[in-house]
């Protein structure tokens, strides 16, 4: 992120363009970030924001009483307190089971959206491993290519996706996320008393490999550092706190958690302690049903979904009056599309996420 130049006369106040350097600068106030030389993982930073964000929302109640995640299809839920315990429990278990897993190692993840996925992301990043999530419905050849690109030492999959690894091998093996063993790692009996993992993670260390879409040729891996994720989380967290705090907000995630948009929005939501409803896979009727059932107030969406919402007659079969805003990202949103959506849903604000 570029900060404002001290010579404000050289910068166009309406655009932030510096005519001397050809660089656009943010018109927002400078953002305070942790010193770059301070060891800090994305997980540590995000959970520190969660601890700061959530107490006011509890109105004096224990943090464990506030729901963080709900799986729409089953109604299973995970509270903030349970999230913190499971991340710590899993991190300890992974270090004990795979002591060689370090910041130079990549963990490949092939799983539908579930309550375990955010826990796994945070636990892996807390011990310095690089998370590399991929599309669970991708073809075998696509998955093989992503494995070849990221060179993981370990893979996490489900019993429904593991068959896609037939031609791949991993030095530390494959962990099934729906196996009794993995589930036991999430719920250690000593998780409340066990000490946090002491692993030095530098902000310049790699944190995630996410995969491109919409580019020419085969899919490409994009490496993000902890500093990248910390900075983007800090920006979105600060913007949200500048607005009136909305403790009744309920977010619905129809976005895939392996995609950069879903990945980033998930981390942002955790940092703010928002209540989230997860869809295991996108289906319009299931999404609309979840909005009605859980009184969803907002959700991140892509432009094609906005088009679907104003065109589909199915929207009239559900009570969507709780919806107040949509965060649109992943691609530019056309003005004509926004206007047509506004005609059908005049009380729903569209916020362009950049």
Automatic annotation (TrEMBL):
GO molecular function terms listed in the Swiss-Prot or TrEMBL record: CoA-ligase activity
Domain AMP-dependent synthetase/ligase per the UniProt entry, residue ranges: 64-352
PROSITE patterns, per the entry: AMP_BINDING (PS00455)
Pfam family, one: AMP-binding
Entry keywords, A to Z: Ligase
Name of the protein in question: mRNA, clone: RTFL01-07-J18
Species assigned in the record: Eutrema halophilum (Salt cress)
């Amino acid at each position: 992120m570029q900060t404002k130049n001290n010579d404000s006369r050289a910068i166009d106040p309406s655009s932030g363009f510096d005519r001397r350097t050809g660089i656009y600068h943010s018109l927002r106030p400078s953002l305070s970030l942790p010193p770059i030389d301070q060891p800090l993982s994305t997980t540590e930073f995000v959970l520190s924001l969660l601890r700061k964000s959530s107490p006011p929302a509890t109105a004096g109640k224990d943090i464990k009483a506030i729901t963080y995640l709900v799986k729409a299809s089953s109604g299973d839920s995970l509270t903030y307190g349970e999230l913190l315990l499971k991340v710590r429990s899993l991190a300890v278990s992974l270090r004990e089971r795979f002591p060689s897993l370090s910041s130079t190692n990549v963990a490949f993840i092939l799983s539908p959206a579930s309550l375990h996925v955010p826990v796994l992301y945070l636990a892996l990043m807390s011990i310095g491993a690089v998370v590399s999530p991929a599309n669970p419905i991708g073809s075998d050849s696509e998955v093989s290519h992503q494995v070849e690109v990221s060179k993981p030492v370990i893979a996490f999959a489900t019993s429904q996706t593991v068959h896609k690894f037939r031609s791949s091998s991993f030095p530390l093996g494959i962990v099934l996320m729906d196996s009794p063993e993995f589930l036991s790692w999430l719920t250690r009996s000593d998780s409340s008393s066990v000490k946090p993992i002491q692993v030095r993670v530098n902000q310049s260390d790699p944190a995630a490999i996410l995969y491109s879409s919409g580019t020419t040729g085969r899919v490409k891996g994009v490496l993000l550092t902890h500093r990248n994720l910390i900075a983007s989380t800090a920006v979105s967290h600060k913007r949200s706190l500048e607005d009136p705090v909305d403790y009744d907000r309920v977010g619905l995630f129809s976005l895939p958690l392996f995609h950069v948009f879903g990945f980033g929005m998930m981390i942002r939501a955790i940092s703010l302690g928002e209540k989230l409803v997860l869809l295991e896979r996108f289906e319009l009727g299931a999404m609309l049903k979840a909005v009605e059932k859980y009184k969803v107030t907002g959700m991140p969406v892509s432009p094609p979904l906005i088009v679907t919402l104003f065109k589909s007659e199915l929207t009239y079969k559900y009570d969507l009056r709780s919806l107040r805003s949509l965060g649109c990202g992943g691609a530019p949103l056309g003005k004509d599309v926004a206007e047509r959506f506004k005609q059908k849903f005049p009380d729903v604000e569209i916020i362009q996420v950049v």
